[in-house]
Amino acid sequence: MTATTANPHGIPGHVAPEQVFHFDIYEPIEGEDDYQSWFRKLQDHGAPDIFWTVSNGGHWVVMRGEDFDYFLKTPELYSSRINVVPRERILPIVSKPIQLDPPDHTRYRNLLAPAFSPKAVVPLGEKARAMTIVLIEDFLARGECEFVSEFARRLPIVIFMGMVGLPEKDREHLLGLVDEMIRPTKVDNMDAGNQLMEYAFGKLNERRANPGEDLLSVLARAQVDGKPLEDADLVGMFFLLLLGGLDTVAAMLSFITRFLATHPQERQVLIDHPERIPAAAEELMRRFPISTLVRVATRDHEYKGIQFREGDLVLMQTSAHSVDDRLFDQPLAVDFDRQVVFHGTFGSGAHRCIGSMLARIEVRVFLEEWLKRIPDFRLKPEQNLRVEPGMVLAMPRLDIEWDVR
Question: Where would you find the membrane-spanning parts of this chain (predicted)?
Fold first, then answer.
């Protein structure tokens, strides 16, 4: 790594004073319209397109879609080997394929691809539909629910746990560990990550002793370049599946539901015209991205007049693309007629989210079945929005109510 000098404020010598701006990915937001709007306000109120923050060990932050796309599509300059801030939160195992760069990334991603292909995802969508109906019917007559715990953190998670063959009894334990990994209450504490690795090792040994047809069993039998995967490879892949499968869709569903609860006009469009739900789901996913991506500079170089040094970390929230007014007209507006060719919600480049097709189906199924049964719903009174940022944004709770017919 190239040595750099720093001033007394912890700013490296290659960072100009005008390039410094406050941003802390782990700082909770409360009382705002929504987190994505808050991020957009940073763009409107003077945040440089790319700036340096001293928070979490110091790193660059990308604010615009053009740069978001460039960094994610240039792995020779911006590697995935460090994919979290601060860098001390990197675990001793490599989460494959997400921490690999092409072409190594492709070989491991190909092992997961069949499980997320259209052939595999369509029947999962039907399971999601059946599960959605069961969950809704369970609280429909009450006229209220706490959406996060009673729905968002159940539907996609039950589907995922079925894919990898995990028992339902482990759900709450795993959710707690994943929460602490993605949105840590103590940034310097890695106990949750170590417990997840121990869990993964245990399940791997179970599958080798008694293999089944679930995805973890398939990986346990898989080969790369004609050789079986080593334990560390398998644990890294399973670890990645746990972080992705137990959190992302659940978080996105909560933001979407809060929007629909507070925007009856848009909700009515989908009630009156359910055929518009697929396009609406895409627009809602564009409007409410929830993931954070990190890359590390592989060598000293200049980009747009900014001096990057080998080892610099670059953080990109998916909001940087999806709510950029240089790419989308009135990006904070939810417009079901918007013609979106590409948005950043699922990332970009070789690492674009492999589970995006399943996520789309789960969101569409939710909208179709929920609006049939609970067409008119609202937030419970005196409820401030609280968002817990991190590598994936999330709302800790969302209380909604409706009139019982």
Answer: none
Q: Which of 300, 351, 357, 347 is nearest to 320 (CA)?
A: 347
Alpha-carbon dihedral of residues 122, 125, 127, 133, nearest 10 degrees?
A: -150
Four-residue CA torsion sign, 367, 373, 375, 377: negative
Q: Are strands 313-317 and 59-62 parallel, antiparallel or unpaired?
A: parallel
Contact 66, 342 (CB under 8 A): no
Q: Are 40 and 65 in contact (CB under 8 A)?
A: no
Task: Indicate the Cα dihedral angle 38, 153, 340, 106, nearest 10°.
Answer: 110
The reply to whether omega before 389 is within 30° of 0 (cis) is no
Residue 19 CB coordination number (10 Å): 17
Distance separating alpha carbons of residues 96 and 38, to the nearest angstrom: 32
**What pLDDT was estimated at residue 3?**
30
Residue ranges of the chain whose pLDDT lies below 50:
1-8
User: How far is it, in rounded angstroms, from Cα 90 to Cα 98?
Assistant: 13
Could you tell me which CATH class the domain 19-401 is placed in? mainly alpha
> If 0-12 CB within 10 Å is exposed, 13-18 middle and 19+ buried, where does residue 362 land?
buried
Strands 386-387 and 301-303: unpaired
Check residue 5 and give its pLDDT: 40
Neighbours of 45 (CB within 10 A): 7
Q: Are 312 and 60 in contact (CB under 8 A)?
A: yes
For residue 5, count CB atoms less than 10 angstroms from its CB and return exposed for 0-12, middle for 13-18, buried for 19 or more: exposed
Two tokens at 79? 């590697």
Q: Which two tokens stand for residue 57?
A: 């060990």
